[in-house]
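Quarterly update from the structural biology core.
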Amino acid sequence: MEKPLDWYAEAKSVIESEISLLNHISISSLIASDGVYLNIETLEKQQFCVLLNKQGFRVVAKAFDQDTNNTQLCYETHFALLSNISKGYCQRFNELVAFKLNEVARSCKDTDNQIAKS
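Predicted structure, tokenized:
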């Protein structure tokens, strides 16, 4: 028998990974029967309420703590959703990846220099 997902743990994981790439992200006060709602404010200051459930991530309102939209468009990942609703997210995400890659490159160069001196 499949163990039911802990939607709040899933939401907290998304929040932890994305908090630095958005103006705001938190668990909504709305209650979902099988899932959890997230309040998201993009870097462009656009607000969304997003339902996270077994189908994926779905924007349900363009305001916090509301479910007014009957759209069926679901995203498999939070990366896909956020990339679609926020150009600022894409830019900041790319900057973060570039920064991390540069750190790795510097670390490799430092290691190579230490080996060459040995």
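DSSP finds three helices and four strands in the chain.
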